[in-house]
Amino acid sequence: MKSVTGNDLVVIGGGPAGIAAAATASSLGLRVALIDERVTLGGQIFKRVGPGFDLRERKSLGKDYARGSDLIDEIDRPNVTVLTSTTVLTIEDGKVITSHAEEGIRALDYRFLIIAPGAYDRPVAFPGWTLPGVMTAGAVQTMVKTQRISPGKKIFFAGSGPLALAFSAQLIGLGAPVFRVIESAPFPSPVNALRLLSRIGGNLDLIRDAAKYRSVLLKARVPFKYGRIIVKAEGEGRLEYVTHAKADREWNPIPGTEVREACDALCVGYGFFPSHELFRLVDCAFEYDENRGGFSVIKDEWGATSVDSVFAVGDGTGVTGSYSAVAQGRLAGLQIASRLKKITEEERDSTAKPYARELRARNRFQSALNKMFDVGAGIYRLADSKTVICRCESVTRGAIDPIIDSTDDVSVVKGISRAGMGLCQGRNCQRHIAAMIADRHQKPISSVSFQTPRFPVKPVEIGAIADDSVREEKYFIT
Amino acid sequence: MSEFLVGYLSNQSNHEDPPRECDVLIIGGGLLGTSLAYYLAKEGTDVTLIEREEINREASGTNAGSFHFQIALHQLTPNMTNSEKERLASEVRLQVDAAKLWDNLEQELDADLGVHFDGGIMVAETEEEMGVLRDKDEIEKSAGLESHILTGDEMRAFAPYLAPDLAGISFCPREGHANPLLVGPTYAYRAAERGVRFRTDCGAESIEVLTGEKHRFKVTTNKGVIKANRVVNAAGAWTGELAAQLGLKLPMGLSGLHVNVTEPREYFLKSMVQHIGRRLTLKQTHNNTFIIGGGWPSRPEPYPKRYSNIWNSTSGNLAVALRVLPMLKDVKLIRTWSGVWAYTLDFKPILGESERIPGYHVAMVPTGFTLGPMVAQMLSEYMTAPKGSVKLPEEFRVDREVA
């Protein structure tokens, strides 16, 4: 294991929040190491085009691409080390342990640590969701953004929240043939719309974006329907038909309202879950906030968590979007610079002002939006007994239900059924199972506890981590 | 396969308040506690078992489910004296008995427990280790445990997946494994059928010895007071802590163990693989994943937090695994976990009734999965027979002192 020492700050995650944090901290003289598991920086929203592509017209890729480029340019400094294609496996005793195909295992020490892991698509298990041709919005976006490949010739988009609109419009803009978009939430009620309007200050750009996206759909004559939810996907060997239906307030499909349509790609985007594996591994305190994506790490206005010298920023702490993420990153960078005496508290506060203001405005707006697109419990009831819940271990709902009848403990369900023991490490099914337990035992999902956090945070080849220089102690008696 | 587990869990009375009195009160719902409850109930004893969480949750359910009938490598040294060899042989005889119990257990409990006897391989890397392996083989054979030594081409033909340059291996056909998630709960299910009252989320907070009353013990739990004639401390890793309440100092220690689990690969490794000189146990499960452990440490955490894993344990443990099975190089590690291993300072079970506190029993055994059911059966025989008619081995004495 190699050591990378002398870092004032290690930032995990090269999306908007992580890059902004690294940019601010490094501009104030901190030695920063920025880690990301992808080949290029940018995270999901600022994702770069894939290697091998020659970018001629940056403008054609849209505003977010340009915002990302500007931000990435900011960290082009000698005191910033960027480690891409590098996966964090664990954090232990003040060291971030990473793996890289050529560099092997490296341990980075730090005085401060910022964890900006981002979020991942909310997996939704409905009959047929494992068919080829059914993809999450994030996966489709990656495919289209980095490889310029459309997932199908006739794409159906089912989802919820502002990103359902944004994603589908972006896909259309990039030439992917979306033919229908459904949104599970009802058409905004006057109360919700007014709440949103009252918080519009500082968010006009988002409203403009939304209007633009809507007009993209209108221009392309793609129907956008509120209050409908995906019910089923069917096909021989791959996706051929989708069925969608009207949804009630709790997002339960209303019988008799089903519509079946032919298509070859289904893009599913029902929001995100924050990636909280690393926060749990370092034992940060959590709270439950449905609007931030469920269990969320507790942090102060600068992003400091309950664990000394560990900060949390970006969508991994609750999904609030890229503008908010950048502001969070800047604030954390400032606070750490001030704790390391690179700037005074007065300098910190005066520089922080515009970011704090922006963050407040964004968060107010976001929470109004979240109320509007509140995820209904019905989304966890779409699976039938044959539907696979844990796709790594092929465990169906029918196999899980009787276990849940007898226990409300996620670990017991996992132990007996093997759901959550596969390559995705439970990312696809654990939350679903927690929701099933909550539903069956009539208790809030916040009371269903986590499984114990364990490394590696991502699967890794044995050959990459085996270290012959580590010797065990001799046994207890000789 | 999980009907007994689910059946046990759905028993609503588990969550009721405990009875006010009973004959035997077992504290701890691990494999020892549940199997003891079964054997006692089979003889008609009135038993209540209390467990502060849920049964089978700690070491009983988190171990790898292996039967360790071969002599454990930490017991072996080069150039052993004859008396050391005789001591080890007596342990092997115990293990041979345990093998017989496991052989019959699925029939006894009328349940699938995932019991398989696929054999165990112990590898030696160096000629010095090979010498120890030969000594071990000799002791095992003398105690009635079948074992074979293979080297060179013979070894490579028998186990072509092993690194070809190993000095040699021993093979014990009797070794195998069972599913640790099923054994304890199935015992509990069968014990409950015979009238044992299980009470979970019910922890023993304090124990008092009573004098001049009908019952000898008063145990205070978070769910009320239970009076019992006899108490069995079967609290696994917490046995010593519980015994200390009554001033008993048990010769035991705790150690956190690290376990690695990989992604599944095509099934090829029938037998468990161990190393005579280094810390390694490696096997492929019936889910096709590899479980790799062997005694690498994990970090103690205060209860109720689980022991946490240590990176060096993973990287060191996996290096030993690759030395023995190089073909696992590109298999992905998915998870690690850790459990608490309770051991005794002389590696003998602590089993029986305290001489200082009559009526107070302790059941603790270092290789708890392999030997647990058997020592539970021995203790049950002792507790149900007329006083003095059944004797437990002297070296298992509860009140012994170990230097």
From TrEMBL, chain A:
Molecular function as annotated in GO: oxidoreductase activity
SUPFAM superfamilies reported for this sequence: FAD/NAD(P)-binding domain
Keywords in alphabetical order: Membrane, Oxidoreductase, Transmembrane, Transmembrane helix
Residues annotated as domain FAD/NAD(P)-binding: 8-328
Family annotation (Pfam families): Pyr_redox_2, SO_alpha_A3
Signal peptide stretch: none
Protein name listed in UniProt: Unannotated protein
UniProt source species: freshwater metagenome
Lineage, uppermost ranks: unclassified sequences, metagenomes, ecological metagenomes
Automatic annotation (TrEMBL), chain B:
UniProt KW Glycoprotein keyword: no
Source organism: freshwater metagenome
Lineage start: unclassified sequences, metagenomes, ecological metagenomes
Example GO molecular function: oxidoreductase activity
GO cellular component: cytoplasm
Domain FAD dependent oxidoreductase: 23-381
Name of a matching Pfam family: DAO
Keywords linked to the UniProt accession: Oxidoreductase
Stated name of the protein: Unannotated protein
